[in-house]
């Protein structure tokens, strides 16, 4: 018997952590849906009573072993997960938090199977290996960081 997850009738609040170090953005290979198998920013669902910043710190630590400080909201995006017949299974509203500083020991864990530090060239070379919404956000985060470094 196939287990079909229940369709979420409402959007689910989530965060992603955008951490750039030396011109490279931290990306993870997702282990679970949505975007299983694709490269994306570390992140996940916000827990009840948790602030956006606290959720980004927690998710970054759980998936990468790294600590960082939340600085600002970079953007918010919709991530829609459909089944094989095109039916909506889940709708995530993801708030992307720009993180700064970084300490800890890098290790893929939880929903991340691999970690990558990607500059713009590596991001473009990865092509369809990066989920579409994450690629758009990654480009934006890298361009913003380049702008900060040229001031």
TrEMBL record:
Pfam families tied to this protein: NUDIX
> Which co-factors does it depend on?
Mg(2+)
Q: Which UniProt keywords apply?
A: Hydrolase
Please verify whether the record's keywords include Hydrolase: yes
Q: Which GO terms describe its molecular function?
A: hydrolase activity
- Residue ranges annotated for the Nudix hydrolase domain, each copy included: 10-146
| CDD domains the UniProt entry points to | NUDIX_ADPRase
Superkingdom of origin: Bacteria
Q: Which PROSITE patterns match?
A: NUDIX, NUDIX_BOX
PANTHER family per the record?
ADP-RIBOSE PYROPHOSPHATASE, DIHYDRONEOPTERIN TRIPHOSPHATE DIPHOSPHATASE
Query: Which family does the record claim for this protein?
Result: Belongs to the Nudix hydrolase family.
The protein, known as = ADP-ribose pyrophosphatase
Species, as recorded? Halomonas heilongjiangensis
Its taxonomic path starts at:
Bacteria, Pseudomonadati, Pseudomonadota, Gammaproteobacteria, Oceanospirillales
